[in-house]
Specification:
Elements: E1 4-5, E2 8-9, H1 11-21, H2 29-38, H3 48-51, H4 57-72, H5 84-109, H6 114-117, H7 119-127, H8 129-139, H9 151-176
Helix pairs in contact: 4-9, 5-7, 5-8, 7-9, 8-9
């Protein structure tokens, strides 16, 4: 079926839109939705007013710059899931997402538990993203542009982001924990 409107073939536009809308950023949508819906339910230490205060500006800027890269790069990574490593990447992504959500649920529903009060429990929402980010890196196999894709590119940016985010979270834990 050829897409037509007012005598014009819309197939090229449909193909272009489909190509650029079906990318790895779709894997970030559950995380963004989760964060948007549940951040306000986290304990006070995780609320923006507390979480962002007394953090060195250079750390905030570095963390935000790498966060932008981590969330922007998937826009340029097509979404094929046909190869074996991509299916394995999807499994890693799902496992990481489950752990990330569980880390949040522990903080929301059991904020006074020994786990949530411990350094590892408090920081779990900061370090578990490396798992689902690794899953995204494993699923992707190219960029839309002619640049060669290497998993290490996205993994490196993701690792730097997670290290900075963990450092930030550790500083908060030291201050309020």
């Amino acid at each position: 079926m050829i897409l037509m409107a007012a005598g014009h073939n819309l197939w090229p536009m449909y193909y272009l839109m489909k190509k650029y809308l079906l990318n790895c950023v779709l894997f970030l949508l559950p995380v963004m939705l989760w964060d948007g819906l549940f951040t306000s339910r986290l304990p006070a230490a995780f609320q923006p007013g507390v979480f962002r205060s007394h953090i060195p500006v250079w750390l905030q800027n570095a963390e935000n710059a790498t966060r932008i890269l981590v969330f922007a790069l998937p826009l340029f990574m097509p979404l094929p899931i046909s190869k074996l490593n991509q299916k394995a990447g999807f499994k890693v992504y799902l496992a990481g997402l489950a752990l990330y959500f569980a880390a949040w649920i522990a903080q929301i529903d059991y904020p006074q538990s020994p786990w949530s009060q411990s350094l590892w429990g408090f920081m779990a929402p900061a370090y578990t993203p490396i798992i689902w980010l690794a899953g995204i890196a494993l699923m992707a196999d190219s960029f839309y542009c002619k640049l060669p894709y290497r998993r290490v590119y996205y993994l490196s940016v993701s690792a730097v982001f997670v290290v900075l985010h963990c450092w930030h979270t550790w500083l908060v834990w030291e201050r309020v924990g």
